[in-house]
Sequence to fold (274 residues):
Amino acid sequence: MKPEMILKADILDILFEDRNKDYGAYELRKQYGNRLLKATALMMVVVLLFIGFNYWGKSMQNNNYSLADFVITDSIKLIDPVQPREDPPKLEEPPKKIATIKNVVPRIVPDIEDTDPTPPIDELSKEDKAIGSTDQDGAPPTGIQSPPETKETGTGPVAPAAPKEEPAVLEKSEIMPEYPGGPEALKRFLLKNLRFDFEDQDPGTRIEIRCRFVVDKEGKVSGIEIIRSAGKPAYDKEVTRVVTKMPLWKPGIQNGRTVNVYFTLPVIVEVPEQ
Fold:
């Protein structure tokens, strides 16, 4: 390259002077700036499109309302009472009987002296004395005599123990009471009848109410009480009102017969978004 052209030439032209420019390296380096500019512009367009679609989707979501947002009872959730887990009793097999033979060990004892000899036959046959358990003086017997008195030794039959009385209302039974139709039917009943006023509650607030009552032998609900209040008497009264309207339950069973059993019903109310 001529000296007067060096100042006007590009650095690539100087590097590739007297070299094969058709090989490819020269063309890659010469167009590198253009390719970098195009890639940067394309990336910016993709980012702007992503931000625009995201903003548009959020604005559309904020403007959409469904019927479920205004249905208060759809936010009620029921929690099944937690029952203590009981492991089934382990059945122990009785030990097997082994054939044995009695081995009597001889025991040496001293001779028994007859300290109370039996009276002779002649004495027993006399009619001036009655036969008794002891010797005693008295008048001759006349007529039929009453049997001699005996002392109680405490070896007679033992009276059977009185059966253990069960409490009037059980805390739990082998088979707990059940709403007719099961938990799903109970949930539908509550959703249909519960009505709450959430004007003074913030959206998303969770309110828990626990109601305890007795299911008697006939399946009737009685003894309703609120054991965990929501902090607002109106909510407690509403749960009590709905529980009072319940139909007959399937009663609890203990030892094969129906019994009175306590039942705890937890209700969780979630305040819907306005």
Summary: The radius of gyration is 51 Å.
